[in-house]
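Lab notebook, bench 4. Continuing the backlog of folding jobs that were queued last week. Each job is logged with the same field layout so the records can be merged later without manual cleanup. Today's entry covers YidH family protein, a 110-residue chain. Filled in by technician R.K.

JOB TYPE: sequence-to-structure
TARGET: YidH family protein
LENGTH: 110
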Amino acid sequence: MTDNEPDYRFTLANERTFLAWIRTSLALLACGVGVVQFVPDFGPKPLRLAAGLALAALALYLASTSYQRWQRVDDAIRSGRPLPRSMMPAVIAVGITVIVVLALVMILLG
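JOB STATUS: finished
OUTPUT FIELD FOLLOWS
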């Protein structure tokens, strides 16, 4: 390891985090498709469509911002700066909360 290179464990941890965000986006997309296509008895169609679209939108958000997040963290690690903050956890928490509320409404209406 040279003086310019960060400890490889930090780089690999950053990569694992990036891959976790990608896996999460794929899982959200799969759930969105599943809600719309495979559970027709789960609430009214407009609510299922709204839940599926919300899940797909969260998946798109995660997939499109996870690489930028990885790059910003990598740059910070390599330059010795503090790690940047991210809105990703807050956006995902709010999005999942909205989807849970939609699911509860669908259960109650079903």
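OBSERVATION: The longest helix spans residues 45-79.
SIGNED: R.K.
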